[in-house]
Structures are given as structure tokens and as C-alpha cells.
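Please check this today:
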Amino acid sequence: MVKSRDVKRVLRQVASPAKAEVSRRFFKTGPGEYGEGDRFLGVIVPQIRKLARDFEDLPLGEVKLLLKSPWHEERLAALFILILQYRKGDERIKGSIFRLYCQSTRYINNWDLIDSSAEHIIGPHLQEGSRALLHRWSKSKSLWERRISILSTFHYIKQWEFKETLKLAKTLLHDEQDLIHKAVGWMLREIGKRDRKVEEKFLRRHCQEMPRTMLRYAIEHFSHAERAWYLLA
């Protein structure tokens, strides 16, 4: 049977100390930064995606071991494997993966880990039922759970369903973290790509109280004159 140690072995075969150093800076792992203490092997994302496909049938217990790893790329590999398994799984398997994700948010602890996974597991799993979990996470003390809450709704946005995103965006308007400002602005921008009127209705109501980073992300694709109007409103 394939084990998590086999995944770790392959990752180390393609690891690069130079890339690891770049990643440590890029993901803000210094003292007091949001990724403080995170450790990197130095493996690029396309290589991790390929590895996930190669180990797609890794038993869930072994995936869980990877997800608890102190190494960033091992956690990312675990999430890519979970996404592949979720897409092909029956309701029992999907439920197990969903529960594992919810129990493991302390390890899904950087923006790329969340952005790569939340919309593919949490979003679809809550599609037909209660989405109260997203609203609970939006008020969490954990930066990462708050980001998961809004990024999970990307799944709905892609189906032209915007209500959940807008509710969460309103909750997160006054969040103190820049990573949340960027995430909310990004999701508002994605709404605007599909229905500009919906985005602008929200912006007209809230642009004056929105953090500037959030607003700038939301209006990135507006004309120069439109961006100036919102920023000066």
C-alpha cells in the first residue's frame, strides 16, 4: 500500500533549497508575519499537482498525515489529493473529506493552501444545505478560517450565485487583516466579471467604509475614471 512517506520521498527528490528560500520570503515566514515559522522544501506548484495525480489513491489516513506536516508543500500536496478524491468520490467519501478539511483548518494556514482548495471542497459540499459554517468561520479568530469562508464562495460565484459572497463580504468589511481585504476584493471583482450591476450596487453602499486594499482589488478592471470616482467617494 502506498504511504505518505512515498509522497515525501518524491517531493524531496525534486526539492530546491534556492526555491525554498524564495518561498520563505514570498509567504512571509519571518517573526510576526502571517506565515511565521512555515517551512518549505522548494517544490513548484506544477510538480506538486503532478505528484498529486500520481498519488491520487493515497488512503485518507495517509493524506491526513501529510496535511499535518510542518512542510508547506506536503500540506499542499495533501490538499490537491483531497480535491481529486472529492471530485470522484461517492457521498460517503465526500463527507469524510469534508470533515477532515473542517478538522484541519489549523494546518490549512496560508493563502495559497486556502485559495487552491476551499472552493473545490467546502463550497460544493455546502451547495445544497446550510451554509452557516461559512458565516461562523467569517467571525472566527483564525485569519485562515475567515479566508476559507469567503474563498469557499468562489464555487457559487462561478455558478452565478452571489448572495452568499455578498453577505460574507459585508461581515468582513471591517476585518483588520490585509489578506482578508484582498480576498473579499477579489471575490467582489469576480462577481463584477459576471454581473457588473451587482458588484456596483454593493460598492456604492459600502465603498466609503471599505479598506482601500479591498476596494482597489474590487475595482481593478474598472476604467481609470471609474476607479478614481470610487476611491474619492
